[in-house]
Every structure is written in C-alpha cells, then in structure tokens.
Amino acid sequence: MKDLLELAEMAWKGELDTTFEHHPVHTFYKGSTELDSDLLGIKGIAGFYIIDTGEGLVMLDAGSVQDIQRAFLEVRNWRPKTPVVAAIFTHHHVDHIFSTELFEKEAEEKGWPKLEVYAHSLMPEHFDRYLKTLGWNTAINRRQFAINVPKFRWPDNYRYPDKLYDESLEFKKGNLTFELHHARGETDDHTWVYIKERRILVTGDLFIWAVPNAGNPQKVQRYVSNWADALEEMMQCEAETMLPGHGFPVFGKQRIQEALSTTVEFLRDVEKQTLSLMNKGFSLNTILKKIQFSKSLMERPWLKPVYDDPKFLIRMIWRRYGGWWDGEYDRLLPESREKESKEWVSLAGGAQKVAQRALNLSDEGNHGLACHLIETAMYSDPKNIEIHKIRSVLYKKYAELQISSMARNILNHASLASSEGKRDLAEKL
After folding, report:
1. If I label 253, which of 78, 102, 112, 285 is the partner at 20 to 30 A Cα–Cα?
2. Across the chain, which distance is largest between two alpha carbons, in Å?
3. 109, 110, 112, 118: CA torsion to nearest 10
4. 10 Å Cβ neighbour count for 162?
C-alpha cells in the first residue's frame, strides 16, 4: 500500500478514485505515515494526527472506537517513550474523539502527567444530546452507512473535555503554540487549529476532500455561510501544511489556498442561489429544480460530490432560514402516508398495477419517479411480499447510480429492508 504522502500527491492530481476505492470517509488505511519531522498521520474513518512538541505529544483529533488499539500501537512504534500530554477534539462526532483511552491508562500506570483534552464549550452539550438519543443515532447511522448488523449500537462512553473555550484559545506545549478557533460549519462546536511555528493548519471536518458535509439529511442544523467564513479565516494563516478531517494532507501554500478558496466559492454560490429564490417566495420543490451547481468546481478532486449530494445543502439552507414546512400546502397538515397511498392506489387500479408502472419507469431511466410510485404501493399494502421484492430491486438500481455515498447508502438501506419484507431495518430495534 502507498503511504499517505504518496496518496496525497495522487489525490491532488485527481489520480485516485475517491468515489469508491479511496473514499475520504469510508476508506481505512493500515499503518501510519510520518508526514513531516515530528508529525505522524493516521487515516481511519477520519484522519487524525500526532505531533511531537519536544515536551510531549499532542493528538490532533483522536479517531473512532475502531482506532483505539491501533492508534496506541502506531504512536508507540513511532515514539515509544514520549507521553501524550494533550489532545484537541475538533468537534463531537464519534470518528474524532476516542483514541485517548489507552494513552490515559498508560499515563496513570507510569505516573506521567494527565492527558488534557481541549475542545469548544458546546461539546459537552452534544455528548449529553447523544446520551438522550442513543436509539435515534443508532437508527440514522444504520441508514447512512447501510449497516445491516442488528447488534450495532451507537457508543455511549464519551471522553468529556478538560479545557473549554468559547471563541479562541492559545496554549503552548514544548516549543509549539496551538491556536484554537471556533467555527460553525458541520457542527456548532467546531474547532480549527493553527500551529504557527510549523505553519500547520488542522481543519477538522471543515475540509474533507468532498463537497462539504453541510446537508446531512438526518443530522442537526449545519451552517453553510459560517462554514465559508471559517475557511476564509484559515486562508489568512498562509499555512504550508493542511491536515483535513477526512482524506489526505495538502502541502504547499498555493495548493492550500486553492483548496480553501474554491470550497468557499462553492458554498457561497449554493447559499446565494438558494436565498435568492427563497426571497422570491418559491417553494422548496421549485428551488431544488432551479439551482445550478458549478460543474467546474465539482470537478476539482477535493470537491467531488462523493459523500453529500449537493441538493442536501439546499435543504439545510432552507431549514436554517425557512423552517420545516416546504411550502407545499397539502403538506402543512397532511393525512397519514398510509391513507393517502391507499387512496391513490385505489384510483390507479391496485397496488400491482402501480408497482408495474414503477418498474416501467425504472426501465425508462426515471428512477426517482419509480421510487415515488413503489413507495406509494408499499404504504398501501405494507405486508405484500411481491411489492417488497420490486421495491428492493428499484431502490438498489437507484442507489447504484448515486455518486454521493450518503444517498447511495440510504437508498440501499431501503433495498435491504424490503429484501426482508420491511420498510426500514432501523425501526423497532
């Protein structure tokens, strides 16, 4: 396997398949890579990094549950006797917060200084929210990652931070200064970090080698304009090394400026178009049809829509500024989906007739409409095995056409569910 340095260069040149083989979120790489002197990079679900300050190691994000053992072994192979003295969590998502555990046990056993975790002041509230919604987060992540594992459960053991800040914080470890800056983007507790002595920028998930994850359909509010603001602030640092939350490091001031500025341009454009149409009173449905995404921007290797579908960002902007109602009058106080579907299916001549029409539409390439029809047929007769068989086929076909892995996985979840005669595998666990 090529190391992260080789992969980073290939990624920048557009030589990697980031849709599947080298997906920035879903691809796990074994081992670790020394990215520069005293700087170690590890890529699990997320990227995380360890820097030697001369007086102890500092973790820049901390990986997922799956990274706990691996991180310890990789770091100890790299720096066998140097204690980890601090960790910075860029945000509360569970692929960024877990692998301090064994280092803390080690410090206690050896009498080393206690590891201190730095994070934004809103992070504890999000850990508390996770504890209140463990079932919900289990369900939505089974859909988002197409996890067909009945025993999968959302983690409930969080490492709450020791050092909290609001807008900015600066601290020193050894010969390095760590500047922490708050931003709202993927989350409202996001931190980006600048290490000025080394000109290293740590973005967290504000840069992920994909269209920014600013529209996740199952998650709490995200902030497109604030995301762009944060990237513009990062550009002022004139960093020489950029360490992203997912994907590969970027080296060189010019490349970093290009990556950040084009991402800003994309985010600004989507929000500008959306707000312009909202200000004309259009419904969400109309806006989704009218928005034009920049093909030239999404052709950049770091802005491909391989995780979020760009339409998801429109919906998140609508939710932030326009509320939950989509502007369709019959959906303000709707009848149940089951009653509505039975009425339409009756008018159409029965569920089998609707299902056959859905199959024909799919064969004609009209997959979205086909899924609308099969969903109506399913709701009208939810235990009909033949309907579920067709539903499974149609959602699988639609999923295979998606560049966005998030869209692909959610659609595949529906396909998997119907293969078992169910609407959804995440319900009633």
Report:
1. 78
2. 76
3. -40
4. 13
Say how far residue 184 (Cα) sits from the centre of its chain: 14
Q: If you ran DSSP here, which 8-state letter would residue 114 be given?
A: P
Burial pattern 122-132, b for ≥16 Cβ within 10 A else e, equals bbbebbeebee
State the Cα–Cα distance between residues 413 and 398, nearest whole angstrom: 12
The string of pLDDT tens digits covering residues 94-118 is 999 999 999 999 999 999 999 999 9
β pairing state of 163-165 and 168-173: unpaired
The domain made up of 335-419 has a fold known as: 1.25.40
- Phi/psi at 89 (5° precision): -95, 120
Tokens encoding 198: 């080394």
User: Are the C-beta atoms of 179 and 195 separated by less than 8 Å?
Assistant: yes
Q: DSSP labels for 294-319?
A: -HHHHTSTTS--SSS-HHHHHHHHHH
Q: Is the dihedral of CA 342, 343, 346, 348 positive or negative?
A: negative
> What angle, 0 to 180 degrees and rounded to 10, lies between the N-to-C axes of helices 405-419 and 134-144?
100
CATH class for the domain made up of 4-265:
alpha beta
pLDDT of residue 234: 98
3-state percent helix, strand, coil for the chain, nearest multiple of 5: 45, 15, 40
**Identity at 154, one-letter amino acid code:** W
- Residue 188 DSSP code: T
d(CA 252, CA 87): 25
The distance from CA 411 to its chain's CA centroid, rounded to whole angstroms, is: 17
Chain centroid to Cα 275, Å, comes to 24
The residue type found at 320 is R
Do residues 107 and 82 lie in contact, with contact meaning Cβ atoms separated by under 8 Å?
no
pLDDT < 70 positions in the chain: 1, 146-147, 428-429
If DSSP codes are grouped into helix, strand and coil, which group holds residue 326?
coil
Give the tens place of pLDDT for each residue, 301-332. Answer: 999 999 999 999 999 999 999 999 999 999 99
Cβ atoms of 317 and 224 within 8 Å: the answer is yes
Instruction: Answer for the pair 38, 9: CB distance below 8 angstroms, yes or no.
Output: no
What pTM, to 2 d.p., does this model score? 0.95
Report which DSSP code applies to 427. T
DSSP label at residue 65: G
Q: Indicate the domain borders of the chain.
A: 4-265, 335-419
